[in-house]
């Protein structure tokens, strides 16, 4: 999905031209891009949570306590979650796998 600016460039117009001459299509482009970004963000966060769950399971299978710090050190997709959300995802994974805290 292209940004609004990329769409304008491809159409050969500036944002100013889009604002003044094509306000409705411009709004539609901006809304659609926002929807796309939210969908991408949700997909990335879901993938990060799944990775966390797999790491928690793997550590537990090895007899190692899957603490948030330990999982953080192994996770590759952690940048998609803030620390508090990451810790909550570890807690949720431990709970769903019936691993005591």
Average pLDDT, all residues: 90
* Rough outline: rod-shaped
Low-confidence stretches: none
Number of helices: 5
Strand content: under 5%
| Ends apart, CA distance between termini | 42 Å
* Helix-strand topology string: HHHHH
Helix content: over 70%
The main β sheet shows up as: none
Radius of gyration: 21 Å
**How many beta-strand elements?**
0
Alpha-beta content class: mainly alpha
Features:
101 residues, mainly alpha, rod-shaped
Question: How is this structure best described in words?
Answer:
- Helices cover 74% and strands 0% of the residues.
- The model has no long low-confidence stretch (mean pLDDT 90).
- The protein has 101 residues and is mainly alpha-helical.
- The chain is rod-shaped, with a radius of gyration of 21 Å.
- The protein contains five helices and no strands.
């Amino acid at each position: 999905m292209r940004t609004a600016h990329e769409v304008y460039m491809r159409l050969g117009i500036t944002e100013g031209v889009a604002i003044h001459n094509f306000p409705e299509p411009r709004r539609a482009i901006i809304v659609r891009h926002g929807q796309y970004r939210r969908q991408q963000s949700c997909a990335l966060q879901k993938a990060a949570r799944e990775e966390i769950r797999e790491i928690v399971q793997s550590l537990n299978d090895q007899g190692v306590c899957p603490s948030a710090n330990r999982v953080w050190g192994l996770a590759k997709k952690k940048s998609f979650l803030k620390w508090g959300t990451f810790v909550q995802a570890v807690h949720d994974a431990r709970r769903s796998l019936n691993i005591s805290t």
